[in-house]
Amino acid sequence: MPELPEVETVRRGLAPVMEGRRFEHVRLNRADIRFPFPDNFVGRLQGAVLKRLSRRAKFLVAELSSGETLLMHLGMSGRFVIGADNCPAESGTHNPKHDHVVFTMSGNDQPSDSPGRATRSSPFVIIYNDPRRFGFMELLSVGDQGRMALLGPEPLSNSFRGPVLHAALAAKKAPIKSALLDQRIVAGLGNIYVCEALYGAHISPLRLSNTLSVDECELLSVEIKTTLELAIKAGGSTLNDFAAVDGALGYFQHRFKVYAQKDKTCPDKNCGGTISRTKQAGRSSFYCDMCQK
Ligand SMILES: [Zn+2]
């Protein structure tokens, strides 16, 4: 499943080719993915220019010249494939049966001198492919937050710090592992990076949330940022059927310290512990009970 770093990797792949381009044509191959497409989705998108592509938690947020905002969520297996106008399947790795949305973007009116995809001067297609169909798209009018309304702080923002996290956890009796997966406490974290950040902060996933000190919350907030930033730098980790925006499979899987490392020796040479796995709220937690307290 794409986690925040993968979504950021997709954003960085799509932004240079989509920003400033017009949706010349939009084709839907079905009426719904996880949710039905919004009313008149095609009519509202066609003709609009994508002004800016940003990210909030695991949502791709496209500001449109029409004043509306296009939200895109990759769900479990969604990805984007960039193709030429007459050759939609530039990558041989995807099955066109699962192409649900095809955007034809306008070419660049003023081709730049720099090499790469950003110089595409003729129309090209961006395909949304999603075998498991847990992804979705929404169109929001001005001021409408849609499914982003209940999201807590963005983990990579400057405002996400120890005191903020400590205040959010003060009334929570649930284990810290579950609290960090609650999108209202911090937005966009999934199972993998929660396990990794807790390891980095030497905090057990079993600890009750309201027992963490401000200092521990500060350390945890720093570890969350560091873990996410390292994964973004590595181009996102490849797990299951997720692929980068250009369909490029085969870049190295990010090495995790504890996630999926059951029975391996703790990576901290001074520790000597062994990585354990336990189930919390139906999800696997990986941790070292020697150095995570
Ligand atoms: Zn350890």
Key descriptive features of the protein:
single chain, 293 residues, alpha+beta, N-terminal domain of MutM-like DNA repair proteins, Helicase, Ruva Protein, domain 3, 2 domains, four-stranded antiparallel β-sheet, 10 strands, elongated, binds zinc ion
How would you summarize this macromolecular structure in one to three sentences?
The chain is an alpha+beta fold. The protein has six helices and ten strands. Strand 2 and strand 3 form a beta hairpin.
The run of helices and strands is HEHEEEEEEEHHHHEE
For this structure, the quaternary state is single chain
- Rg over CA atoms, rounded to whole Å, is 21 Å
Q: State the separation between the terminal residues, measured CA to CA.
A: 29 Å
CATH architectural category of the largest domain: Alpha-Beta Barrel
Sheet with most strands: strand arrangement: 1-6-7-5
Number of DSSP-assigned strands:
10
What's the tally of helices?
A: 6
Mean pLDDT: 87
The bound ligands are: zinc ion
CATH class of the largest domain: Alpha Beta
Largest sheet: 4 strands, antiparallel
Which geometry do the CA atoms define? elongated
CATH fold label of the largest domain: N-terminal domain of MutM-like DNA repair proteins
CATH superfamily of the largest domain: MutM-like, N-terminal
Low-confidence stretches: 86-91, 111-118, 237-243, 246-252
* Residues in β-strands, percent: 15-25%
By secondary-structure content and strand pairing, the structural class works out as alpha+beta
Helical coverage, percent range: 10-25%
